[in-house]
Amino acid sequence: MSLDPQLLEILACPDDKGPLLYFQDENSLYNARLKRRYRVDEDIPVMLIDESETVDDTEHDRLVAKASDEGIEPTFAQ
Fold it and tell me: Which of 6, 16, 32, 64 has the least C-beta neighbours within 10 A?
């Protein structure tokens, strides 16, 4: 399963309130501005800053490239 498209349209990072990239196959939402990843457990986004993961530069580059290659768009336009 995947996240509801209507939920994705309004889902924002709890820290900077900006859009996220949704990687369905990795069960995660990613904020490229802060290099912060939020997990999705059983189709429920865990949007707690304390439970997010800060990724290193290599992982950031991989995620940004993957989003570009796969046409993954931000959850909403700023």
Answer: 6
- CB proximity list for 48: less than 8 A, separation 6 or greater: 14, 38
pTM for the complete prediction?
0.94
- Half-sphere exposure (CA, 13 Å, Cβ side) for 57? 0
pLDDT of residue 26: 97
CATH (domain of 19)? 2.20.25.10
Q: Which domain holds residue 25?
A: 5-70
Query: Would you say residue 13 lies in a domain?
Result: yes
Number of domains in the chain: 1
Residue 46 half-sphere exposure, CB side, CA atoms within 13 Å? 14
Rg (CA), the chain: 11
